[in-house]
Amino acid sequence: MMDQASIPFSSRLGTKINAVLVLFFVFALTVILLTLYVARQLEGGAAAINDAGSQRMRIYELVYRLHAMADDPQSREESIAETHRLVNEFQSVLSMLEKGDPDRPLFLPRAARVQEQIRSMRSWWDTSARPQIEKLLVMPNDAERRSLLAAFDGLAQRHVSMINELVLMVEQSNARNTYLMYMFQYVLVSFALLGTLLLVYLFNRLVIRPVDTLRAGIERMAESDFGVRLSAVSRDEFGALAVGFNRMAGHLQNIYATLEQRVMDKTRSVEERNRELALLYEVAAYLGEPATLEAVCHGVLHKLCNLLDAPGGVVRLNNAATRVLEIAANHNMSDTFIKAEAHLPEGACLCGGVAVDGSPITRDLTLAHPAIVPLTSCMQDGFAAMAAIPIRSKNQVLGVLNLFFRESRILTPDEMQLLEAIGQHLGVAIENLRLVVREKEMAVSEERNLLAQELHDSIAQSLAFLNIQAQMLQDSLRDGQTEAAGTELARIREGIQESYDNVRELLVHFRIKVDHANLDEAIRSALEKFEGQTGIRTSFNKRGPVLAPAATSVIQILHILQEALSNVRKHAEATAVEVDMQGGEEFTIAVCDNGKGFEPKNVVEADGSYVGIGIMRERAHRIGACLEVVSTMGRGTCVTLALPR
After folding, report:
1. Confidence band (pLDDT; 50, 70, 90) for 444?
2. Residue 638, pLDDT score
């Protein structure tokens, strides 16, 4: 198609239009300038006629003043002064007529006759008129003055005739200039009319007619007539548009002819995309459901085999300790294959290479690959092609997903991209399942640690005390000290009772189950049991709006409350316990007693625990809370738990 650069400059539409407009403008400007020039000549000539006519009046007034000076001696001085003024004015106007005045404007025509006439007037004035006037002004003899006045009158009549001839010449020149100005105006009007017609014709030929042709072609194309073609007769922009239009029409004709096939192809592509999206959604929804690791792997593998018509497939997971790929799930694979490739070292075969470099592959196993020699298990099972997709999570390869085909097949880039996305989803699901297992293991380990700590702080200490008392009892019986033996036996009985109470308390701790929305009811229930078992008076106060903490936090709060009450029972020797719970920006619960108290510096030993305080701090730390113990000798103890929102 022709573009702007391929169109010759002289053939461009803009060049043609600009050339016509420039010629039109130059001609019109020339005529207007000539008209203005002639009008200025007329204006200057009219001013020259006025000034030349004023010279006649000044000649007559000079004659009058000279005669008045001779006839009336009394007004001689006034007449002489007035004569000098008239002479100066005549001299000034005559010089202006000779030189002209562009500012007024004033100037005589450049004709030879006019210039000769003004020179004659200057010669008459300089050689005849002005010398005689100067003589008349100083001549004392009246007779001679009258004779000279008579001669000056003749000279004045002659000069008036010269002025009249000059005025007539200027008027004739102005008449010619007026005719020229009218002619220029007629020419300008005619040119405006003819130029407008010419511009209308040119624009109709260069612009309007091609635009109408192009519009008619577009209308025919809008009616699905893609066989329309425009004739490119010019080499300007409209010619280029016609060539481009014809190319576009041919292209649309070709597209329209294959439109049905294109729609079918696009429909097939959209269906494939929808199937891929449906599979992704189905896999994502399936991975979101609770299931075991083997069930997740088997379910995803089964869906992929159905989607891609793969007769078999396996999911291999990487054992980080042994660096071996172990089969976690399979679909329609033979026992021979499972036994042969149950443990595949990283880097071995095609699948092991994918686990190392993390790049997906699709291969035709019937073709030789000099770089990697595949294991024979795949080919022995009758597979001709395979695909290996890395299972990723956080840029780490967790395993490989394999699909096997009976016929030679190379998966398309879109199919490989879909499998990569599913591999990433599966990797995240596997990682989440492993994290859940680890979390459960850590929770069990933490509970075992707490159980060990509580057994150590309660039953283990009581058993150690009983062991010492039993040894003392044995010594008393061997020495025959019956009274001492009775005392030791009473202490053993007390120790056994205390151990029994500790076991019951531990059982209460581990049986705690509470709805986190009813925390205050659980606290009241615990206080009622405590008061019934110990006889110590209890009270519960709740201040402000209290939003229930999370369920995991509620369990730890109740354990801390039970531990604090247990310390009161064992060590405080108190008669009353008060529990305060307050909400707001920070959830707080305080357990205060009126017992004997203790010195806080004596309760923290090297292992960080004493009478359950270490256990309470550990539970508080687990839920992000802060535990504070305040005690004064003889004034009781207050344990405060603060949990920020």
Report:
1. low
2. 93
pLDDT in the model for residue 607: 42
Question: Is 625 part of any domain?
Answer: yes
b/e for 401-430, b at 16 or more Cβ within 10 A?
A: bbbbbeeebebeeebbebbbbbbebbbbbb
Give the model's pLDDT for residue 515. 46
Average pLDDT over residues 291-306: 82
CA distances to 286, 314, 315, 352 from 330, rounded to whole Å, are 18, 4, 6, 17
CATH code, domain carrying 287: 3.30.450.40
**Does 304 fall in a domain?**
yes
Q: CATH number, domain at 583?
A: 3.30.565.10
Residue 505 has a pLDDT of: 60
Alpha helices in 204-292 (DSSP H): 209-222, 237-257, 259-288
Same domain, 172 and 286: no
> How far apart, in whole angstroms, are the C-alpha atoms of residue 401 and residue 51?
116
Residues in contact with 512: Cβ distance below 8 Å, sequence separation at least 6, in sequence order:
522, 555, 558, 559, 562
What region does 584 belong to: left with phi over 0, alpha with psi -120 to 50, or beta?
left
388 C-beta neighbours (distance < 10 Å), count: 23
Domain closes at, from 431, 455, 476: 431
Query: What's the CA gap between 389 and 535, in Å, rounded?
Result: 69
Do 49 and 177 lie in one domain? The reply is yes
What pLDDT does residue 299 have? Answer: 83
Element (H, E) at 385: strand 385-393
Q: Which position has the token pair 């061997």?
A: 478
Coil, strand or helix: which one is 402?
A: strand
- How many distinct structural domains can be found in the chain? 3
58 and 164 both lie in a single domain: yes
Q: Is it the case that residue 467 has pLDDT exceeding 70?
A: yes
Assess if residue 478 is contained within a domain: no
55 and 166 part of one domain: yes
The span from the CA of 303 to the CA of 315, in Å, is 13
Cis status of the peptide bond prior to 131, with omega within 30 of 0: no
Collapsing DSSP to helix, strand or coil, 158 comes out as helix
pLDDT (tens digit, 9 = 90+) per residue, 178-230? 888 889 888 888 888 988 888 888 888 877 877 888 788 788 877 777 777 87
- In a domain, residue 96? The reply is yes
Question: Does 68 share its domain with 167?
Answer: yes
Confidence of residue 516 (pLDDT cuts 50, 70, 90): very low
Which domain range does residue 98 map to? 4-192
* Selected residue with higher pLDDT from 627 and 202: 627
Task: Note whether 423 and 538 are same-domain residues.
Answer: no
Kindly indicate the confidence band of residue 563, based on its pLDDT and cuts at 50, 70 and 90: confident
Residue type for position 17: I
β-strand pairing of 576-582 with 537-543: parallel
CATH assignment of the domain containing 165:
1.20.120.1730
Question: Looking at 192, 207, 231, which one is the last position of a domain?
Answer: 192
133 and 11 belong to one structural domain: yes
pTM of the model: 0.40
Mean pLDDT in residue range 523-550: 83
